[in-house]
């Protein structure tokens, strides 16, 4: 039987293929995409923050000391995102986002912070953008600072063992924040609703003024009547006849001689 000669490059390629397969399996792709928290909470998005569900029972295969980071990026950075750029570096600093850094990493935690079971009273959400004290502090590049614009933004969770990526979730759908209402868009008194309120307020003011005037007139009338009654009390007193008494001894004195 004739044996087919093995291509000489096969032995050389095999270790390289195994190495590539090992590297590919080193980063676990998790079937999870970050989402906004339950809509019943309220305030899920503001002008500078948004609230995510915690990735509970997602990183079950990572070791306990592996650090799980939240990555916040502009949509344009998602396709070519480089997991090897670590947290706290200039390329992942919050203070440089988004002009100088297309993404930043924040809210580091371990697997123990995202357990599968939920105890009563547990907080199971993450508010992104809640730290204002470190927003301009370049010594804290992993600051969870307020988002600089309405976005949109996309996020994912990335687990690092030291500087080595070991697991990651999918990217979220685009998350847009609220925009502040411009003063020019606030309804003025020219609207129909405002005009009605002004008319009602005016009518009530007139009625109140009439009622107040009537009350003052009544008090003045009662006061003048009271003063008239009091004057009759202090009217000129009636003449009282007083008898004159002369003592006899007065006339017995020799007054003529004095």
TrEMBL record:
Listed transmembrane segments: 197-221
Top-level taxon of origin: Eukaryota
Transmembrane found in the keyword field: yes
GO cellular component: membrane
UniProt-listed InterPro entries: Uroplakin-3
Species name: Cochlearius cochlearius
Protein name: UPK3L protein
Keywords, comma-separated and alphabetical: Membrane, Signal, Transmembrane, Transmembrane helix
Signal sequence extent: 1-26
